[in-house]
């Protein structure tokens, strides 16, 4: 709002001053004034273009297609699932294959959306919360599955996963985890990942205040994680709250570059997708329970 007002006022003043200047400035100085005016106008235009490119706000208008695709996929899946179960046209093995295909297609669109608004290739996965406080990477988008899917099949304690653990048992109310420099967080003992345990701890080269990874086992350096959950309170039951707290898992977006995610808007986009995924999982298994319960 502030920059909109400044822009409108500046535009009006610039146009008015251009036309009234001949009445207040001696004729001999007019060419110089006009030259300075054009230089300042062009400089302001360059600054504005740099600001727009830097904030990337205009890119959010371009991901409507991905939002529509995900919602469209969920609607079609739920309708088809119920119809096929009602007419006994769905076998167990068919359901599993089609369900995974449906989830992956949605993750592909989420990855495309974040790759567009961030300007860097992003990867997306869903970590499922299992009994016993265990996490498992259940689904990945197609591109990242080819590169790293084989490394993350075993469940691991949620305490070994800093982003998910900080959301599942937060010290204060929060609805997302965002880190634009995972290397620094790890170096300052604020980030942990099961990958470190499965492979080896990172090795860094330090030159003054700068850190350069000599060995970095993770595929990403920035990450954004939001819960796939329904909650009527800000803190989990373990903290003493009495609200409803139902988890499916976590939607995780990451990127191989630093300083990728915008702290003001990216988590809202991720949260919107996570809310849709919660409805998707809940409705799917509610339909399954309805038609597969013994009579």
Total E-strand runs: 8
Strand content: 15-25%
Major beta-sheet overview: 6 strands, antiparallel
Strand order of the largest sheet: 3-2-1-8-7-4
Q: Which percent range fits the helix content?
A: 40-55%
Order of helices and strands: HHHHEEHEHEHHEEEEH
Rg, rounded, reads 26 Å
Structure classification: alpha+beta
Shape estimate:
globular
Q: Are there runs of 5+ residues with pLDDT below 50, and where?
A: none
Number of helices, where a helix is a run of at least 4 consecutive DSSP H or I residues: 9
Overall average residue pLDDT: 83
What does the model show?
- The protein is α+β, with helices and mostly antiparallel strands and 295 residues long.
- The protein contains 9 helices and 8 strands.
- The chain has helices at 2-20, 30-55, 64-86, 92-118, 142-148, 162-168, 182-187, 194-198, 266-292, and strands spanning 122-130, 134-140, 156-157, 177-179, 203-207, 210-215, 222-231, 245-255.
- The strands form 2 sheets. A 6-stranded antiparallel sheet has the order 3-2-1-8-7-4, with helices on both faces. The protein has a two-stranded antiparallel sheet with strand order 5-6.
- α3 (64-86) runs parallel beside α9.
- The radius of gyration is 26 Å and the shape is globular.
- The N and C termini lie far apart (60 Å).
- The mean pLDDT is 83.
